[in-house]
Design goal:
By secondary structure, the chain is mainly alpha-helical. It has three helices and two strands. The chain has one domain. Helices cover about 45% and strands about 5% of the residues. Strands 1-2 form a two-stranded antiparallel sheet.
């Protein structure tokens, strides 16, 4: 997928001017595929900036270069649901 598939040049429409995002590239809505303009675009960029800041904060607090995995489980370990032992006992009692 190319970046042009989900990001376009900045827009100077009235909605984008009112939201103060005429300097930001427009983005596609991940659900509808429509281009975001105005306040929805501003919310997208705010959320993205918060996410990037959070990831940088996590990486700074870790040892190493900050690029090691943030998840310590092996692939497939989350496939089976965790069930408390007393829950299993209750299910057995219901069958009797």
């Amino acid at each position: 997928m190319r970046s042009s598939d989900f990001q376009g040049p900045p827009c100077d429409c009235l909605e984008c001017q009112a939201a103060g995002v005429t300097d930001k590239p427009i983005r596609r809505d991940p659900h509808s595929g429509a281009w975001l303009h105005g306040w929805p675009l501003a919310r997208w960029w705010i959320a993205r900036d918060k996410f990037v800041d959070a990831v940088k904060g996590i990486a700074k607090g870790r040892t190493g270069g900050g690029f090691e995995p943030l998840v310590s489980r092996e692939p497939g370990e989350d496939d089976e649901p965790i069930v408390a032992q007393d829950t299993l006992k209750d299910e057995e009692d219901d069958r009797i």
